[in-house]
Specification:
Order of helices and strands: HHEHHEHEHEHEHEHEHEEHHEEE
Number of helices: 12
CATH architecture of the largest domain: 3-Layer(aba) Sandwich
Shape: globular
CATH topology of the largest domain: D-Maltodextrin-Binding Protein, domain 2
Distance between the termini: 12 Å
Strand content: 15-25%
Number of strands: 12
Oligomer: single chain
Helix content: 40-55%
Structural class: alpha/beta
Largest sheet: 10 strands, mixed
Amino acid sequence: MTIQRRDVLKAIGAGAVASVAGCTQNGGSGTQQENQAGVAGETLTLTTTTSTYDTGLLDEIHPDFEELYGVSVDAVAQGTGAALESARNGDSDVVMVHARGLEDEFMRNGYGINRRDLMFNDFVIVGPESDPAGIQGMGSATEALTTIAEAEATFVSRGDNSGTHTKELNLWEAAGTEPGGDWYQETGTGMGEALNVANQQGAYTLSDRGTFISQRSEIDLVILVQGPIGGGPEILANPYGIMAVNPGVHDNANYDLAMAYIGWITSPGAQDAISSYQVNGEQLFFPEAVSENPDFQQYVPQGWSGDSSDE
């Protein structure tokens, strides 16, 4: 994609969001009523990672959007890889996931448009309180994984091409360790089930903090290596993004409603709702779309930098 095309897409996205923002801020204005009339009764299909659904976040915040526009949201919880695949196949209008490398590939291949940074939490390494590998309190996630591998302590992997699984594989690679053998078990399941399996087997696993907190009262696992929210390494950061499915690729994609949703969920009100959402008195997600120091380069692929040859 050339720099000129990027600028055009940015302008389109900004205009769409500005339009949505205008109608959501004007109370019962004619603009809002006209916008609602354009989408009322429709269903938005959102494919998303299991963590946003299993934690109860979407059930908590979606009624406000559905009431505002007179629509319904069909949230299909899958791993990040499966959520993006559904969108590539034209079975989704909007995607909310947490694996930036996979998101960038999705965007570069033209399937997505108007990506926004949405929110973040972090990953943690959890395991039995007895901690047979002795990783508790380690300041390095890669060192912790290497120690688990050397001890051949049971480790449960989601093994499902989700954002969490992608992060786990990146960590093993950074550690210079290739997991395998009887001690390494892939479940092919969502995060909640992977935590249950780890709990039953007294095993270690990598979890997003939100899902772990939401299930902590039902399992005996504890956090042994913290992510950056708990003072741990930045490599365990877990940012979430949201993007519309490109209607130029799939003309059945409900682009208008997708952009209304993106405009709503990145607005101050919805970001406050995300920030306020708690389970057992703990905040699960931290808003990133509204900032005192906004990152206007958030829509280009991670690590991208322009040069004069693009101009």
